[in-house]
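pipeline stage [seq->struct] | target=prephenate dehydrogenase | organism=Nitrincola nitratireducens | residues=739
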Amino acid sequence: MLTYTTHRLLIIGLGLIGGSFAKALKSRKVVQHVAAYDRHPQECDLGMRLGVIDEAVEDLPSAVQQADVIVLAVPVKAMEAVLKDIQPFLRPTTLLTDVGSTKGHLVQAVRQVFQQIPSGFVPGHPIAGAEKSGVIAADADLFERHKVILTPLPESDPKATLEVARLWQSVGAEVLQMDPYRHDQVLAATSHLPHVLAFSLVDTLAHEEENRDIFRYAAGGFRDFTRIAASDPVMWHDICQANRDAILKQIDQFTSGVARLRSAIAAGDSQAMLGIFSRAKVAREHFSTLLAGSAYSANTQDIDLRIEPGSPLSGQVTIHSDRSISHRAIIIGALSEGVTDIEGFFEGEDSLMTIKAFREMGVVIEGPHQGSVRIYGVGLQGLQPPKGPLYLGKSETSLQLLTGLLVAQSFSTEVFVDEALSQQSLLSTLMSLRTMGAKIDSNEQGGPPFRISPSILKGAEIELPHASAQVKSSVLLAGLYAQGQTCLKTNRFCRDHTERMLKSFGYPLSESEEAGEVKTTINSAGTLTATKIRVPGDFSTALMMIAAATLVPQSSLTLTDIGVNPHRTKLLPLLSRMGANIQLTLHKDTGFEPVADIRVTYAQLKGQVFTAEDVACVVYELPFLMVLALFAEGQTLIHLPETLSAKESALILSTVAVLREQGAQLELNGSQLVLTPSALKGGEISDVLPPIVAFAMIVASTRAQQALRIKHSAALLAAYPALVEQLRHAGISIHKESD
């Protein structure tokens, strides 16, 4: 068993990358001795004068024998020659890595020179650079918050990989691992192709007769894109030779894409042009968000929320639009025939994922711009296969609903998500869809990534053990395509936004209730006709403000244009029983969803007893009820339903835990919650909370003994971008604070 150390470092090739790595390790005292060898000795002499290295190597064989770590930082074309020079002197316990941008060529050279891959060989590629070159430009902070891709081979010792990873992490890099040949394919698209295009564009324009004017009047975009054409021509010649096949494949794909755009421009095909441009815009924005903090975009800091207690809520407030309805408007609008216009679309991170997914499936969508979206529907049979896997980020709604839609398509799809969402199980959804004949491969827990294959769906009678609007909606979307009739049965009502939306697009379905059983039936014989949709204000956010205004003395607040779907507002009668002062003024022309202005004033609440039947349809709103009960006169007893889903149980347990941490007196005995009036201490919550629990804690903070800091709120604010501004408008003293 080999043991690796990292005391003595040898850099072969002291340019920008090699010099920066040496300087970073030396300045942080990660290694004890830094030596360097370069075919231009003056570079090593300069490195000594600048304090980048400790030793300028003249005797390479001796330096190789003494080194614990060797970093190859030479041009791609020189790799094989350098490997031949060091091979006779390399110790079995020496770590060997590199910083090159191609890996297949390097691995081939190592096999040829060594015959057998050394166990300490771990190829690497830092995604970092600068416009200047040479050791004179060495920067000890070059790799901070940048990605480094390690591409260990089957022969690489895992302990060696770990040591190399630790070296990169010690200089601030984020270390990832990838198969070396996959690395070359990815870099061909993201790095090598852009460089080739920049070289080609500048070379082409330089041959134009009026090239002086072209370059004289070039705007910032041209300068930014063509900046990389000033890179080292010899280096890029070598890279193109080493990664030829992958680069050629990307050039061919790019050429096909340009040809499609050229055809659209030549034909004056506005819809095709808008489709290409809008898909590209959203993809660019999406990946900028996805890669925040990496080499490809500016880093972002985590954000905490700090709420000061005591400020009354007052005035008239308009809050952001409903997330759930926004998702469904995009989905059903895309599947309709004609042009759908949406006003009041909610521009949160998750709902934008739904737009992105449909653009990748060929749907032209304009916007969103200040809440306005226009969708050129393709009909039920018009979706196109995406060119790659669909990434849905953290959006569970996108994942649930699109899974039901994708199982009915004639093409295969891969769906992947953010790591946190991949831990969730969608077994209820998958089992329901598989009952209809869907072919879905998932992880062992029933979560994503999903591999969805084409299948012929058949209508079925499906009983949902737990009423879930997302599961129900997923099955209904599959039912649009299934042969025959699909009938869903649940033991209680839940949100019916999808049913209302389908009806507003002219699609028939039936709903009934009999003997405590709720039944929804849909056939695949209908069509969806484009329409105009106005998305009302989000009731969940409104409920947070309603609860806060009820708690804080002297509050008098009016919320305008709020969606009051009867299956979303069932908590309001329970609050009224406790003594809350809440008045709804319904709008006359409400469209497909009822809309109201809601006025709420401070009230001293009284404890109540709530049966399981009372709370059966408000489980997801229970965090608000639990917080309010802690400030009521007398105890509150809540009997929980016997059949809770895993998600519902987790939500209640999360709320109980955070409230106890805040000093609440509450007991959870089986299916009974007993809440005794308690003073909440404020301070700090360090756990990452589910959004609805975070909302409830914002409410609790308005009556806490001191300010409350809710840490790690960046994801919450990405989902609700205008949250802080809207709460401030209502009167809550809330601030964003960065680490």
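stage status: PASS
auto-comment: The chain has 26 helices and 32 strands. The first strand starts at residue 8 and ends at 12.
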